[in-house]
Specification:
Distance between the termini: 129 Å
Number of helices: 18
Shape: elongated
Number of domains: 5
Largest sheet: 5 strands, antiparallel
CATH architecture of the largest domain: 2-Layer Sandwich
Oligomer: single chain
CATH superfamily of the largest domain: Histidine kinase-like ATPase, C-terminal domain
Length: 625
Amino acid sequence: MKKTGRSRVRLSASFVLNALILAVFATFFLWIWQSLGLSQLLAAASSSIGLVSVIGWVDPADLVGWAVQVVVMSFGLYFILQGQRWAMESKRDRSPDDERIIQLFASAIHSTSDGMALTTKDGTFIWANEGMSKLTGYPVGEIIGSDPSLFKSGRQSPQVYKKLWSTVLAGMRYRGEFVNKRKDGSLYTGEINITPILNQHGEVTHFSVIERDITKRVETEESLRQGKERFRMLVESMNDGMVLLDNHEYIEYANPTLMSKLGYKADELVNLNFLDLLDDANRQLVHNQFEARQAGSRQSYDLNILNRSGLKKKFRVSPHGLFDKSAKLVGSIAVLRDITLEQETESRLVAAKEQAESTNKFQTSMLDNISHEFRTPLAGIIGFTELLEETVEEDQLEMVSHIKRSSQRLLRTLNGIISMSALLSDQLETEVQPCNVDTEIADLASDWSAVAKNKNVTLTTQSGLQDTLPKINKDQFRIIAESLIENAVKFTDVGEIRIITRVKDDSCFEFVVQDTGIGIEADAQKVIFEPFTQESSGITRTHTGMGLGLSVVGLLVAKMGGSIGLTSLKNVGSEFVVTLPLKSPFDILLGEEVQVETERQESKRPPRARAAFNSKAFSDLSQAV
């Protein structure tokens, strides 16, 4: 605490006054002493200190001299006491503020988490705080007296240390990051600040060292850097284009894919206004979408963008608005998928579909006309030949029978073509109902037993379903069964034909036709279910037909959710095994409510209207080969 000028004057005056009072008091005290007969003691005391010689009473001259000596002694004593007072005042002036600040400063240095140390000019530690001990794992006692090589990890090159020393020895501050090693061998990254301490001549005498552990910060920065690098690689390797726009639609970034698709070189799109890549109609579209994004919309839309050559390319844009903390739109990021080829392909597919539908309509119309124009005269021919068989002479009967057989063959061929066309165009009814398969097989076996008997072939049945009633389309099953039975009768000239039904498991049943006919070669078995295919062909064929029967069977079995297998040996016989679900997939797809509605609608139709497809297209399929 500094003294003012007035306080110094008061202090000096007080000093002189106190000295005079002390001198007077001392003189009076000695006179009293002498008057009480203590002069001998005084003389002895004076003589012992060599000031005066007392012989009897002291004369005035001696008394004055003695008084002067006393004053001098008093001044000396006063100076001693005043010096102590000044020291106490100086100490009191420094307290409590200065002392408290010094104490707080020392406490802060010792308790800070950063490592702090002082070194000599050659780098020897002369002081370190607890933060340095916690950071390095070394006790303070081990740090003091050592040098910074104690913490070396070997991760820095000698050039780094060389630069450090050249900087600090030149009196300049040094700051850097070092990977150091703790006492336990673990590594950490420290940010080190070294400040030279100079004497009054500007010479470096010591160094102040502050070290902070930034390991977590470095790890975080490295993680962010790696994440940024992965994001960059992801964006640049995308098959789709990506663009980043500011709030004025200027391009801040475009990935290489977009630049390549638009024909631009690296960074040529940056700082270009995105609207410059659009025509008027698409500019308005982008403007509308921009306003929608301000409201938070992320709706995708299709956009025509002009490439560098001025040609339009169509992109599907998936935008996303970028907002600041105040919910203000500051930019947009969008993924642009090139759908130019996709749109062209889709257009071609639509055109092909329309053409196919047109062709299908033409085919259906043509088949309907063929069915009408061929069936009607053939039905008349067959009917008249049946009448002629009863009326013509014996020598003409063979010709009439030949006409009848030829007409029936044409009718079977026509029915097979129409049936195949219906199957391929997926014009199948999906109605299913419980069906007594054993009863249907018995009826078919009865119809074909006479034909088999005329060829000296035995036809037998073995019913294994008993009370099981599969839920299937009965008309379609009859087509499958009759085609396989007819196929067996047609190609079996001796032996027997066995028709078997059996339950395979809880979900399927099997319909089996076994014969001892001519069999099928292994190579032919691979194509036997293809349309217009027979094992023998050309003028060497021994059996008539267009080869549609088994192909129709294969398609129907597949439509009903089943499978068909064939085992055959040439000149030994064949076995066809048809596996069908006990519950049709059509029934599972439609559900009970749809089935009830279908039955309700069927009850309102004319008696045979719902079977129009079967009666018209498949009525004679059992005769089509």
